[in-house]
Amino acid sequence: MHYVERVLSELKAKDPNEPEFHQAAMEILNGLRPAIDRHPEYEKAALLERFVEPERVVLFRVPWVDDRGTVRVNRGYRVQFNSAIGPYKGGLRFHPSVHLSIIKFLGLEQILKNSLTGLPIGGGKGGSDFDPKGKSENEIMRFCQSFMTELYRHIGQDTDVPAGDIGVGGREIRYLFGQYKRIANEHVGVLTGRGLTYGGSLVRTEATGYGLVYMVEEALKCRGDGFKGKTVVVSGSGNVAIYAAEKAQSLGAKVVAMYDSNGYIYDKTGIDIAVVKQIKEVERGRIREYAERVKTAEYHEGCKGIWNIPCDIALPCATQNEIDAESAKALVKNGVKYVGEGANMPTTLEGIAVFQKAGVVFLPAKAANAGGVATSALEMAQSSGRLFWTFGEVDAKLKNIMVNIYHNMDSAAAEYGAKGDYVAGANIAGFMKVAAAMLAQGIV
Ligand code: NDP
Known about the structure:
CATH topology of the domain at 207-368: Rossmann fold
Bound molecules: NADPH dihydro-nicotinamide-adenine-dinucleotide phosphate
Structural class: alpha/beta
Oligomer: single chain
């Protein structure tokens, strides 16, 4: 049995109830095959077995009291996956669907993503099954304070530096940071995505969406093309989606559709991002309200229909497994040429196969959405150096990082006989550095 197959089957046998983690591990390890075959020393050192096993998993109780005085109990997680190249780094997700399998898949992806940025950060991920939707400001604050009351003892600016993800934006980070500072009595860069008045970095809010578009722009440029005049579909209407749409429009594309978990809006004249921002960021409303305000827009209940809209470029920016084989086929039939993953694992393995077979330029999440964590690492650098860079400085560094990631994965794919296969290229380029660091540090 091939080394990769053996490790995957052992992993499935050990934790049979973790389908998302298996899916991510399959995508990664299969993409690594050409590199594994060239490096027999990996198997001798049980490198893959160590790579798929988190260094540490913390699971904890998060008790809090809601506005009616009822005691509520959620579950908190922090998976400290791999610290070979730097302190654990990765976001916190607050969403009712969160469980260990989701956090482990995100953590595993994060190791390679962080390596791809070229910055010294290891991989981790965390979160809770808490749903911030419909909660009052005070409930959010109390929950975040309770969550941090346990989490603080496991993190630190040189140990583990969490950030935001689904359901954890600027508001949650400020309450989490306030509680950390209060307990630990230190004002340090222990969380990223902080506000600008207390250690945050310019561009962090925009970074994942902007970074995604910078990478797609480079892929277009290398093929003698650009965003100008292109029709784009963006799924989601959260942090990543909004800033991907904003940047794509600013480069001359027309973003015609977006969604939230209830349904999608379609505006063939191009979506007005300022209205989306007002509804989602300021009012915390639903995307259907867009169609009530903008006459050229239609609203459709349900999400899946968005992938039947003809477009040149699709940017899935909401959540895992948004695009299955059927949706991928609909996109291909309608002429999609580029898919850039803003969300983590938004395309199923079958969906990826459809895109690759059709010759679509497919830019996988761990490369395409690395702009967020890269800018988080720039925030860490500014915190430790007591520096504050301008918007233009951070944005230029972000763009440079995204362009470099694109070329690194392009070269790795070509070097290992998989030209144009960026799933393999991103996995290999990210893994080689982590593998070298793990081998160098002995059996740990
Ligand atoms: P947000 O919470 O800001 O937004 C998430 C968006 O996705 C919302 O519009 C939400 O709709 C929608 N969504 C969530 N679940 C579903 C679902 N099951 N079906 C349809 N729509 C859904 O999160 P982010 O924008 O921060 O994150 C989006 C993705 O990007 C995630 O996969 C995340 O891991 C990834 N990512 C984020 C980074 C960041 O810097 N923020 C960095 C790298 C990756 P609703 O409001 O209805 O819930």
